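Hi V.,

You were right to ask for the full record rather than a summary. Here it is.
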Amino acid sequence: MSEIPLFCVVAAAENGVIGRDGDLPWRIPSDLAHFKAKTMGRPMIMGRRTWASIGRALPGRTTIVVTRDPDFRAEGAEVVGSLTEAIARGRAIAARDGVDGVAVVGGGEIYAQALPVCDRIELTQVKLSPSTEGAVTFPPLDPASWVEIARISGVREARDEADFDFVTLRRRTAGRAGA
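Predicted structure:
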């Protein structure tokens, strides 16, 4: 049986900003619906600060929180000490539940660690460039490693604060840097 795919789900501004002060620097309810659709039913891996920013386990998904703090507890989530452990646990849950992937949902440090082993990126490209001062950013992508396979222009609803595109990127190389 082939390995269950690992993919990132991220909303990033044109300059790579993904967060500031434990929150998103924009309000785009259409992206939140997209996030829900991409993650529903699948295990999600996130860092402790992303867990704190969400504030709770999201329904319909098993949440795995990565932290170096052995005493950290997250009600309704599983807590592990490394990304490697989180990936193994996520794949076991995905296999048990019969789902097609494990979603990595942030933050910046977790994305940086996960990108070398991810198969795909589900990117909401937010057409803004907020200040990078004190912001969390998505790691720059090596164009030699990723190819865009789909792009859908987002339909900006009345409550969305910015324009956006939904972009799917696949890893170009067959081999990944281990998992």
